[in-house]
Amino acid sequence: MTDQISRPFLSDAFGYKRLTLSQSCLSRAVALVLLCCTAPQAVQAVGPDDVHRQMDHVQTAGAESNFGFSNGSVIVAPVPFSNPTIGSGLALGAGYLFKTDPGSNTSVIGLGAMRSDNGSQAVGLMTNLAFNNNRWLVSIFAGKADVRYDLYTPLGPFPVHQDGDLARFNLAYGVTEELSFGGVMRYLNTSISGDRPGLPSLPPSYEPDLNLEIITAGFSADWDRRDNSDYPTDGSRLTAEATRSFLIDSVRASYDKADVTYDAYHPLGADKSLAFRGVLCAATDETPFFDQCSIGATDNMRGFNSTQFLDLRSTSLQAEYRHRFGPRWGAVVFGGIGWTGADLSSLGDNGSHSAVGLGARYRVSKKFPVDFSVDLSHSNLGDDQIYIYVGQRF
């Protein structure tokens, strides 16, 4: 069994929607830090880019809660994690949670840091604010990451070292209680090199992507009809984001990227539910490899290293059965299938990539439906992966 650590991953439970950094390894490391910063009840760790699109908002325990900055609470939490991209490790986070008004979701100001057993590390500072009954939603993040991972190339996997600085700003306006539109700005300065002396250098096709400074601007939409943002059992959520990225001090052309994610939830009883996810992603030819569509990163699908299947187009479908055995313990059975390709017509040319698995859940909070999760997946390539994180994958 390939006991690889699952990359830091931000989940909705931590007040983070998705990292828009196309879920590259760098963004995922920063995302893990973000996750740590935004967990209610001192226990949380992931979700996007992904630093990502829009960040989910932590739900409050009740409308009768006190509000105002001075009536908030401090949270400090260690969060263990494991994933197949950067390995296993620990994230440490501290946050201040408060409500700006009785009708808005919980706002968060947080600081976090993480380190994995392969030497990857990251630190980040985030602010996630909700105003005027969630009419205005503001998310600000800044972080620095230094990560090591295997980049899968036509010549096989290459160990690489990527470091960089990342900042992201999201501003969204709620047209209704369920529908919001917003804009996003992102800054990324990153460099990539081989991680082990004496090994061959990366193939020439990757050289243009090794040292880049990028400014990204985009538009996002979110139609959220879920009954709960931490542990949804009914409803649906449709999110979309389209961005254009400009390369500073480079003659390379700008590149575009867009993706759409649809999540649906169906209750089967008091303790059972089904969850579904469908994702479609597209990027233009000039997109650096770390910002391309990815099975495992763009869609949070379990079973594959997030740099294993990268291309300009991807789509995937996932399903999960969730069962609660009581107030604390639960379990899931999940499966997913995805495709990548240079364009939509070639998505199936390289075959499908599928995985199934089992997971255990332990409810870490009596106030919020937040779980500590351990998943074991088995892919159609015969690889087994272990994932440890807080919250749900979708």
From TrEMBL:
Transmembrane segments: none
Cellular component terms per the entry's GO annotation: outer membrane
Protein name (record): BamA/TamA family outer membrane protein
Source organism per UniProt: Parasedimentitalea psychrophila
Keyword field contains Membrane: yes
Signal peptide as annotated in the record: 1-45
Residue ranges of domain Bacterial surface antigen (D15) in the record: 211-308
Pfam families, A to Z: Omp85
Location in the cell: Membrane
InterPro entries for the chain: Bac_surfAg_D15
Alphabetized UniProt keyword annotations: Membrane, Signal
Main location: membrane
